Amino acid sequence: MTTVIRAAEAPRFALPGVNFAGGAAPSRGSDQLCVWRLTVDAGHITDTHHTVDRDEVFTVLSGRVRFGPDQPELGAGDVAIIRAGDPIAVANPGSEPAELVVAITAGFTAMTADGTPIGTPPWAA
């Protein structure tokens, strides 16, 4: 059976400077893969990072993003593969919002910079 999630009906989640539109996830019909659309506000910078226990893939649809202060700036069409355990600090150095599609294996766990478990965020549950 095919599961369809219409853009207008996708669950929405927000953190300071970033917004998530839920796509594939176990609660939405996908046992093995999570996918969501990420919008990063123009000028968003964070001084903290997090890690996840699985490889995570970010595809930039529009705008500019960086995944850490020493990481390259990426634009539309670029893909970043962040390996499990590597720090992630999403920033948008541009003057326009950035749009990305993110994919990761279902059941992943996120952790704060000091190793405190965050668990699986609601957009991927």
From TrEMBL:
Domain Cupin type-2 span(s) in chain numbering: 38-102
Source superkingdom: Bacteria
InterPro entries: Cupin_2 (IPR013096), RmlC-like_jellyroll (IPR014710), RmlC_Cupin_sf (IPR011051)
Stated name of the protein: Cupin type-2 domain-containing protein
